[in-house]
């Protein structure tokens, strides 16, 4: 299993689990980031935040938050 923070550019990943509770989990739900959703990594520069595409919307996610979002690899463009 890998985390969102480990994703490569142009990689599409399926959300498996979000290891958050409370307000931040609610924020992720509002962003459309929840179990079984496919996200595409647009930018993943280390160090720094990630930019991901979720259902046509781009979101910036901090690296520490991305490390708590478990994903599985789907395919690469």
Which bin fits the share of residues in helices? 10-25%
Relative strand content: over 45%
The SSE string, one letter per element, is EEHEEEHE
> Whole-Å distance between the termini?
21 Å
CATH superfamily: Ferrous iron transport protein A (FeoA)
In the residues, how many domains can be counted? 1
- The pLDDT mean sits at 90
- How many helices? 2
Q: What's the main sheet like?
A: 6 strands, antiparallel
Q: Please provide the count of β strands.
A: 6
Spatial strand arrangement across the major sheet:
1-6-2-3-4-5
Radius of gyration: 11 Å
Please give the CATH class.
Mainly Beta
Output the structural class. Answer: alpha+beta
* Poorly predicted regions: none
Can you tell me the overall shape?
Answer: globular
State the CATH architecture: Roll
* CATH T-level fold name: SH3 type barrels
Explain how this protein is built:
The protein is an alpha+beta fold. The protein has one domain (2-76): Ferrous iron transport protein A (FeoA) (SH3 type barrels). Helix content is 18%, strand content 45%. Strand 3 (38-44) and strand 4 (50-54) form a beta hairpin. The protein starts with a strand and ends with a strand. The relative contact order is 0.36.
């Amino acid at each position: 299993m890998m985390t969102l923070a480990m994703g490569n550019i142009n990689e599409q990943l399926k959300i498996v689990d979000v290891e958050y509770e409370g307000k931040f989990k609610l924020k992720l739900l509002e962003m459309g980031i929840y179990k079984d959703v496919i996200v595409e990594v647009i930018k993943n520069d280390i160090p720094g935040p990630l930019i991901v595409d979720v259902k046509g919307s781009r979101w910036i996610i901090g690296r520490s938050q991305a490390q708590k979002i478990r994903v599985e690899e789907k395919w690469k463009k």
